[in-house]
Design a protein that fits this description.
Structural class: mainly alpha
Number of helices: 20
Largest sheet: 3 strands, antiparallel
Helix content: 40-55%
Strand content: under 5%
Order of helices and strands: HEEHHHEHHHHHHHHHHHEHHHEHH
Distance between the termini: 35 Å
Strand order of the largest sheet: 1-2-3
Number of strands: 5
Radius of gyration: 21 Å
């Protein structure tokens, strides 16, 4: 399957295949999405990215997501040939000169990804089996138990996170294997992660308040620097390694509450089913790791969770500059600037660090092109960096130490230097 920069006929919304057509669904079962004021009936639509994406956003406004995931969003919607209601606005037809130019440059630089990326999921399994064998034989067991945890953490970015953005990119057997291995966390995360992309650092972004009530919401800290302090920093040091637990708790709360949706709606049923499957798999799955890596499993757990926290938590919270965009974007170009301003890259010019972090360090390119495979983010980031320098966009690329030093100051309540509060490029 080709991604958003391939031809509209191959990638954009396509007609459903005849073999997959189902009898008409009852009115309350139909799936609809809203984009730029137009309601689209996608009940019978065969989305090339996976039907899971449609279920996750049924009944929602997906304007920004359509724009960021398609080379020509207006053409993609027209190519869908689904029922639509409403005249719509002009979001897809104007105010996109910068974004469209950037998409063209990135397409020319990165080309199309492989048809499948199953190989990316296979070698970590072989490496983890080798770690288990080493632990069982008593060969540096503490070291290999820690390495096992780091491999688990990296797979969250290279497999789980990529599944969340393009489920159909993975062969079914890889999706099944990964669901069993990670207790269905990809399907659970899919139910809410795209809201983070649609409203980064704004109302509606679930990532802003993961650690409440232990650590205040990041948006609250940015709005009132007096809320920071040494106590906040110390509590953050304690809870950040527990990031996956807070994420699961937040997502589970979100799904169980239904986000205001009808409990019988397809979106809610699908999300709660994913949560139920994950809950049933979690205990036996991770008990198996604990048994195989005993007595060093705590090192595995700490390595995996610390890796995830260190590679992700501060990518939108270096300082208050990440929250400086107070006006909601009304055009695609404004949304592009908003995404760059609210996101931080980390050693994105270092191929070794990019590989170690599974590409998540190239976070600005990921937000601007969310369904671009991680293996292509390094090349896309170089284009984005040069493009930002030419057009004065607020792109920032930190060193790991620089990012976490800035984030620590943010938690302490210190104001960022003036040049950081109004960044240009670095």
């Amino acid at each position: 399957m080709r991604w958003c920069f391939a031809s509209v006929a191959a990638v954009a919304l396509q007609q459903p295949r005849a073999s997959l057509r189902q009898p008409p669904a009852p009115a309350h079962e139909r799936l609809t999405l809203t984009a730029d004021g137009v309601v689209y009936d996608v009940t019978d639509f065969d989305h090339p990215g996976g039907r899971e994406l449609l279920l996750a956003h049924a009944g929602e406004d997906v304007t920004h997501l359509v724009a960021s995931n398609h080379r020509r969003p207006a053409n993609a919607l027209r190519a869908a040939r689904v029922k639509r209601h409403g005249a719509g606005g002009s979001y897809f037809d104007r105010g996109a000169d910068l974004y469209d130019a950037l998409k063209g440059e990135v397409r020319a630089a990165v080309g199309d990804p492989p048809a499948t990326i199953a190989a990316a999921a296979l070698w970590p399994y072989a490496a983890r089996v080798a770690c288990v064998v080493a632990c069982q034989r008593g060969c540096l067991p503490a070291l290999f138990a820690t390495l096992y945890g780091l491999l688990l953490g990296r797979s969250v970015w290279t497999v789980t996170h990529e599944y969340v953005h393009a489920p159909a990119r993975w062969p079914r057997w890889v999706r099944t294997l990964h669901a069993l291995d990670f207790a269905n966390v990809g399907a659970i995360w899919l139910a809410e992660h795209h809201r983070h992309h649609a409203a980064t650092n704004r109302d509606g972004d679930p990532d802003r308040r993961w650690f409440e009530p232990v650590v205040p919401g990041f948006d609250a800290l940015a709005a009132d620097r007096r809320r920071g302090g040494l106590g906040v920093l110390l509590r953050a040091c304690f809870v950040y390694p527990l990031l996956p637990l807070f994420m699961v708790a937040r997502v589970a709360t979100f799904l169980l509450r239904g986000d205001g949706a009808d409990a019988a709606a397809p979106r809610t049923r699908a999300a709660r089913r994913a949560l139920a499957i994950g809950g049933a798999l979690a205990l036996p799955r991770f008990a198996l790791d604990a048994l195989l890596l005993h007595p060093f499993y705590p090192l595995t757990f700490l390595a995996a969770t610390s890796y995830l926290a260190l590679t992700f938590v501060a990518t939108h919270t270096a300082d208050e500059a990440n929250y400086a965009q107070t006006k909601a974007p009304t055009t695609q170009d404004e949304w592009l600037v908003d995404q760059i301003a609210s996101t931080n890259d980390v050693r994105a010019d270092g191929p070794v660090y990019t590989w170690l972090t599974g590409g998540i360090n190239c976070h600005s390119a990921h937000h601007v092109f969310p369904n671009l495979p991680g293996a292509k983010l390094g090349a896309a980031t170089e284009v984005l960096r040069r493009f930002s320098a030419r057009h004065g966009l607020p792109y920032r690329n930190f060193s790991p130490a620089g990012l976490w030093g800035s984030h620590a100051s943010f938690l302490l309540g210190r104001r960022a230097p003036e040049e950081r509060r109004c960044p240009v490029t670095s």
